[in-house]
Amino acid sequence: MKKLYEFNLDCGRSGNLDGLFIADSMKVNEAIGREVYLGEALGKHSEVYFDLEDGHLTVKSEDLAFIKQLEDLLGEDISGYNPLSYIEEN
What we know:
Number of helices: 2
Structural class: alpha+beta
Order of helices and strands: EEHEEEHE
Low-confidence stretches: none
Helix content: 10-25%
Oligomer: single chain
Radius of gyration: 13 Å
């Protein structure tokens, strides 16, 4: 089932990274615990990487009709970072 997720990563004094995206809950569950590499997302030489945890994601909506309309209008990646797009493949 697709849900609307908010992503937030606190990188201390370097800043926060966030995003809003739509994803299937099974795909999200499979991604938990995997390494995400965002590159130099916080500036040159920042090298942002982390293991995705439940605490990085918040479900903002499970309303399928709303999510369908939002996806039709804006696509799956609405704003900011979608950590599922940056999962490291081994």
